[in-house]
Protein: Glycosyltransferase involved in cell wall bisynthesis
Organism: Fermentimicrarchaeum limneticum
Amino acid sequence: MKVAFVVQRYGKEVTGGSESHCMKVAEKLSKHTDVEVITTCSLDYVTWSNYYKEGIEDINGVIVRRFAVEKQRDIKEFNIFSENLHAKPHPKSDEIKWMELQGPYSTKLIDFIKKRSDEYDFFIFFTYLYYTTFFSLPIVKHKAILVPTVHDEPPVYLGIFKDFFKMPSAILYNTQKEKNFVNSHFNNRNVLSDVVGVGVDLRSAEPDKFRNKYGITNVFLLYMGRIDRGKGCGELFDYFIRYKEETNSTITLVLIGRDSMEIPTHENIIHLGFIPEEDKYNAISASQLVVVPSRFESLSMALLEAWSCGIPALVNGTCEVLKTHCTKSNGGLWYKNYDEFKECLELLLSDKSLRTKLGKNGKEYVKKNYSWPTIERKYLRVLDRLQKKIISRNQ
């Protein structure tokens, strides 16, 4: 069996949630079947500018085929177009234009799938939201598996997605809430599906090694991922700075990930940028807690990674997925405004036994629900079912 993963960005330097999710699954499944990745040359998800060399690359034993992006995204133009699109009635052609502006625009990638689709038994598409999935999935819908990573956001209400979620041969969701939302909104319950998620390795880490390497001696809370207003980072900065002004706390906020917004200049906000995987887990273990401020998440790898190290979390409670994770695991607290943020943060920082208990609960939750053997079995089970279905249809 030969399986192609299709995703907008792919590489060791890529820190996006769905892209990292894709990489982990592709590498795990490569132990069981022949896997390739079809992607673009982009690293920057704002402009989609070409960063990687076009062609074939081997990353951790997985063949990666990269195709150049032909049009960079003008984020100001795109944002203005998006605001107008969502604000008033419009023709379908405007939605198609929106998707082309969304990008990453690579007709070479689409043409490759058209010409070479027979070489692959199945295609697994990561995220519904981008050009690479929207224009190539319909070409191979009879053997397409979609990992949509959907949450309740404006684009999902566009008319172009009305039939899209009925096209794949199978859909693999991150959470039951995501599945319920998609089934309710698109009436696609007849499509083969499962709630799969992503695996997380339970690992030991060395917190002192992180502190010594990066010279961080203060007690700190940790944010991991894209530093972006869409991820709630603007509100996090506002809340953190206000908390510092109102209290005598010596707490520091450490940020790991690439920035696409201005980070406030503050003596207790430290941006480390992209760091190696080992350092990331050492950072988690060295932190008092991991904060996840996003209002829109379909899973949150950062949350699961925090719990895999036995570290508690503080999450944005307006995101039902994050709140549900916390209630099911009893591994973290949540807030919906500044006062709740302040109260939860003070409670977690002052009560070590509570942090320990929440972290332990979170680790058990990850172990039970997000171990890699469990995730791999679910993917392989769906692939096997689809393969048998195709064989039966062809007999």
